Amino acid sequence: MTVKGQAMEMWVKPDDLTGLVLTEINRIWKQANIQFTIERAQVEPMQQPDNFAQLCESIAKFKRGDEKQYGSQRTDNIGKLLDPAHRHPTALNVYLLPFIGSTYQGYANIGGNHAVIGVWTDKATHGKKPPVKALLVELEPMKVGSLARTIAHEIGHNLTLQHPDKSVVSEVGRLMGGSKQGYALTAEEIAQARTSARKHLQNDQNR
Question: Which of 96, 98, 115, 171 is placed for a possible disulfide with 154 were both Cys, Cβ 3.0 to 4.6 Å?
C-alpha cells in the first residue's frame, strides 16, 4: 500500500513478536495476572481475490468516521484478505498488516479470537502526514503508543473489555482508552478479563 507517497511494507519480523513485543504485552497484562505465549509467528500469504488491488486501495483510503457512511466496509475488506484456513479455532489470532486505514492502529471483535493490527500509522498526525513505522515498544508514560500496546489493547477486546466512556475523567492512563490513554486496567476490567481468559483456556483444553 502507498499513502501520501509512503510505500508501506511488512517490516515487523517474527523475532520481534516473540521477543520485545511479547515481553511488553506480558508486562502490561501482568497487573491482571494474565500472561501470553506465542504458539506460532510466521508470514502467511494474503488471499488474492480478483479485486485484490481495489480492496487494498479502499483500505488505504479509509478514514476515521467513514463508518457512518460506509458501515463496516473497511473491516469487511480486510477480512477478505485473510485466509480463515490459517486461523486457530481457540487461540487468539493476531494479524499484522502494513496499514489498516487512516488514523487506525488496530481492531478486534469483543469476545472474539482475532485482532488486526497495522504496523504503519498516521494516528499521531491525525492523518495529516504520511504514515510512519509504529514503535515496537514505548517506555512509560505513553506518548504516541506502540505496536505492543496496540496488541495488548486489542487482546483486551478479545477478552470482552470495551472502551471506557471518554467523558469520565481518569487519573491514570488506561489500556482500554477513555479520557486518558496508557497501560492501566481497573479492578473491574481485570476481573472481567480473567473470567474471559479462563473461558478461552477451557475452550482450548476441550478442543
Answer: 115
Assigned C-alpha cell, 119: 504496523
**pTM for the structure as a whole:** 0.95
d(CA 7, CA 4): 9
Residue 153 cell numbers, joined: 489493547
Residue type, 137: V
Angle ∠(37,190,88) on CA atoms, nearest 5? 35
CA distance 112 to 10: 25
Dump pLDDT digits (tens) for 87-131.
Answer: 999 999 999 999 999 999 999 999 999 999 999 999 999 999 999
Look up cell 501482568; give the residue. 30
3-state secondary structure (DSSP) of residue 153 = helix
Tell the residue number behind the cell numbers 475523567, with chain if given.
Answer: 169
Look at residue 8 and give its three-state secondary structure.
coil
Q: Which residues, 6 or more positions from 46, have their beta carbon under 8 angstroms from its beta carbon?
A: 52, 81, 82, 83
